[in-house]
Target: Phospholipid-transporting ATPase
Amino acid sequence: RSPTTISVRESHIEKMGKVQDVQYEILNVLEFNSTRKRQSVVCRYPDGRLVLYCKGADTVIYERLADHGNELKSATREHLEQFGASGLRTLCLAYRNLSPDVYENWNDKYIQAKSALNDREKKLDEVAELIEKDLILIGATAIEDKLQEGVPACIETLSRAGIKIWVLTGDKMETAINIAYACKLINNNMKQFIISCETDAIREVEDKGDPVELARFMKETVKNELKKCQEEAQQYFHSVSRPKLALVIDGKCLMYALDPSLRVTLLNVSLNCSAVVCCRVSPLQKAQVTSLVRKGANRITLSIGDGANDVSMIQAAHVGVGISGQEGMQAVMASDFAIAQFRFLTELLLVHGRWSYLRICKVVTYFFYKNLTFTLTQFWFTFQTGFSGQRFYDDWFQSLYNVIFTALPVIIIGLFDKDVNASLSKKYPELYKEGIRNVFFKWRVVATWAFFAIYQSLVLYHLVVASSSRAVNSAGKMFGVWDVSTMAFTCVVITVNLRLLMMCNNITRWHHISVGGSILAWFLFVFIYSGFVLPKAQENIYFVIYVLMSTFYFYFTLLLVPVAALFGDFVYLGVQRWFFPYDYQIVQEIHRHEADNSRIGLLEIGNNDLTPDEARSYAIMQLPGQKSRHTGFAFDSPGYESFFASQAGVYVPQKAWDVARRASMKSSWSKTTRKN
Model:
C-alpha cells in the first residue's frame, strides 16, 4: 500500500493455481463520517477501467442501489436478517463502473470542494452524493463482536441499582436486540415497543423514488407509533401486573423522532421504559439522544464507549467513561474516567462513586455546621454588649479556626469514610438508590445540621458565660472577657471535632490522629501565643490560658460543656438509627458481626460461594498481570498468565506462545551465560 497505489495478490478462477500481484491506482478516497455512514474509494484497474467501491450500513447502501438486481437485493436482505439474528455486525458492499467523462467532471467538482475554505466538510459530502448512486450490490459481510466478560452481570447489577440503561449502537436492529438479550437488558417478560423503518408500507413508498413523499410518510408514521406507544405505556402502568417496558428504535425513525415537534413524546415514552435500544444511529444522533435526556429530563447522564464514534456521546454527558480496548484511545482521551473493561463500571459507580457522594455530602454539611456553630457563639455575645462592636474572640483565633484547628479531620473523613465495604456495596446495589434520591443532601438534612448548630452554640456560649460569672482565678479575681472567650473557644474546638467522630461510619487511626492532633494543635498554639508579650492590640491574651488552667473551673467546664452540647446529637442519632434507619444502616446491622471480607482469599471464595469453574476463573482474574498500554487487557504479553497461575497454585493450560517465549528466554539466557 502506498499513498496512490495498492497491490493485491489475486488467484483467478479461470487460471487455477496461478497467483499474481495486481496493482490498482487509488484516485479518490471519500472518508466516513457520522452523517454519511459509508466510505468510498475510486480506483483505476491496470486495463484503465474506473470503478467506485462503497461500503457502509445496509440502510445507506440500499438507498443508493440501481433499480435492477432485485433478486440479489432480496437474498442479501434475508442474509442480513439472519446475520443480525445471530448477533453479527454487518456491512454492505457495492460498486459502480465509471466512464472517463463522468469521472473527470465529478473530479473537478471534488477538487473545488476539497480546496474550499468555508464549509469544506459539507461541500465534500454534497459532491460525494453526486457519484455514490446507481450502485450495484456486491453482497454483505458479517463479523462476530463478542461481549467482554462480565457485561451481562454488570448491566443486571446496575439495573438493580436504579440506573436506567440505554444502548446506542450502530448495529442492525436484529443484532442490537440480540446484544440486549445477551446483556440481560431485555428479557421475554418485557413488553417491547419496536419502531422501525423496515416495514412493508415504508418500502412501498421507498420504491416510488420520491424522497419528499418518503420523508413526509416516515415522519407521520413515527408520530403515530410514538403516540401509540405512549397510550399503551399508560395502560400498562394502570394494569395489575405492570410489566417492564422496553423501546427499540432504529436510526431513520430516530432522526424524525428527534424533530422538535416529536422530541417531547419520544422523551416521555423513553423515560417510562426500563430499557431503550437505539440501533443504526450515527455518532451525532448518540450525542443528540444524550443531550435530550440531560436537558429535557434534567437527569444526570453517564456515557460509556470504546471507540472514536462514541466521543461525541461521551462529551455530551455529565460524566464520560472511556474503555481502553481494541478500537483505539480516542474515547479514553475524551472521557473523564478510563477503565480497561466494561465490568469495572460496577466498582466505579456502586463502590467509589457512592463513597464519593457520601463523603462530599458529609464534608459540605460539616463545613456548614462547624462554621455556623462558631459564628453563632459570637452572635449571642453581641446581645450582651448591646451591639457595640466588641469582638468576642481574638483575631488569630478566628483566622486559624478553619485553617488549623478544624481542617485536618474533615480532610480525613473526605478521604477515608465508607459506610459499607466494597463487597457489600456490590452485593446490595440498591444502596446506590440513596444517592439517586439525594437522601444525604436534602434541605431536611441541612436544616437538621443548622438546628443542632444553633442548639450547640447556645449551650456552648451560655454555659460558659453562666459558669464564669461566679468563678475566680487563683488570685481571687473574676474572669474577664478574654478569659471567657478563650474558654468558649476551647469548648467550641473540642465539640466540633468530637462531633465529626460521631458522624463517621468507620473510625481508623487517621481519625484519631487528626482529631487528637487538631485539639492538641489548639493547646500548643494558645500556650505559645499567650506566653509572649504582644503589641497593644493583642496584649489582652497574655497569660490567659495559664490563669485558666490553674483553676478547677477550667477542667470542670471542659468536661461538662462539650458533653452537654453533644447530648442532643447523640440522642438524635440513636433515635434515627433505631426507628428511621437508612438503607446502609440496615446493611451494617445485618453484617455487624462479620469481619471485613472485602479482601477474601481465593480459596475461601471458591469453597463458599462459587462453582469450581467460577472459582478458577476468579482466581485467574485476580492474578497480577502485565497490562498493555494499548489494549488495556491483562496478560496481553504472552507468557505471564501461566507463570503467575503456577505461583498461586492455580492450574492454567500452557499455550503455544508461552512455550515458545520461555524457550527463547532460555536460549538468550544461556547465550548470556556463555559470554560471561
